[in-house]
Design goal:
Number of strands: 5
Number of domains: 2
Distance between the termini: 25 Å
Number of helices: 10
Largest sheet: 5 strands, mixed
Order of helices and strands: HHHHHEEEHEHHHHE
Structural class: alpha/beta
Shape: elongated
Helix content: 40-55%
Strand content: 5-15%
């Protein structure tokens, strides 16, 4: 079964609201026996093929963040590169696969974070964002350093905030050691480090180049 066919089967099962559809099914099957349940499922194509459809969509959906990361970088490149600028290396998959950054050109190094920020407690996302900022800020190069994000309001609120670096870097002890060894104990909060390095890394809203208005909650 192709992905479009699988999606069509899932959409037919879901209807306008999965919650409402499930509620109707729950009510409909109360009191049914074996033969009636078999007919019920056959009439609605709830069968082996349907399960294969659901499983195939789940498999694809498990890779959706990687797909968004790769497609987002590719969509942005024609808009962010300057005349005469060329790609030297790019990492489209999960992680940087041995490369320093998501993107390196003859003029810039860059990291991308395709996060649709919600403004709530997003500590894990914040931690990853700070890690990317730190790696860019500490990288020795004469090239531009850019951190591309989806909307700057919430990321900048984080960088201006008072989360302790020991908390932000709790899962990155090597980075915490590097930071403390180089800057001592006076750099304790996110805003301390950001104020120190804010002119080294440009935080750029990539939204206009990826059609953000069409993909909330991804």
């Amino acid at each position: 079964m192709t992905i479009p066919e699988a999606l069509q089967a899932i959409q037919a099962f879901q209807g306008d609201s999965l919650t409402a559809s499930l509620a109707l099914i729950e009510t409909a099957i109360v009191g049914l026996g074996v033969n009636q349940l078999e007919t019920f499922c056959e009439d609605r194509s709830i069968n082996h093929s349907f399960m294969v459809s659901a499983a195939s969509i789940k498999k694809v959906a498990g890779q959706i963040n990687v797909i968004i990361h790769a497609a987002g970088i590719l969509c942005s490149l024609p808009h962010i590169l300057e005349p005469g600028e060329v790609v030297e290396s790019v990492s489209l998959g999960a992680g940087n696969a041995g490369r320093h950054f998501d993107l390196q050109t003859n003029r810039r190094v860059a990291e991308y974070k395709f996060i649709d920020w919600q403004g709530g407690p997003e500590s894990i996302r914040q931690n990853a964002l700070f890690k990317d900022f730190f790696e860019l800020a500490e990288f020795e190069t004469a090239k531009m350093k850019c951190l591309y994000v989806v909307g700057t309001t919430i990321p900048m609120r984080f960088f201006s905030g008072g989360r302790a670096l020991t908390s932000v870097l709790s899962r990155f002890p090597t980075i915490l050691d590097r930071l403390q060894s180089k800057y001592g104990t006076e750099i304790r909060q996110v805003r301390d480090y950001y104020q120190l390095k804010k002119n080294d890394v440009e935080i750029v809203d990539v939204s206009p180049h990826i059609g953000r208005e069409t993909w909330h909650q991804v």
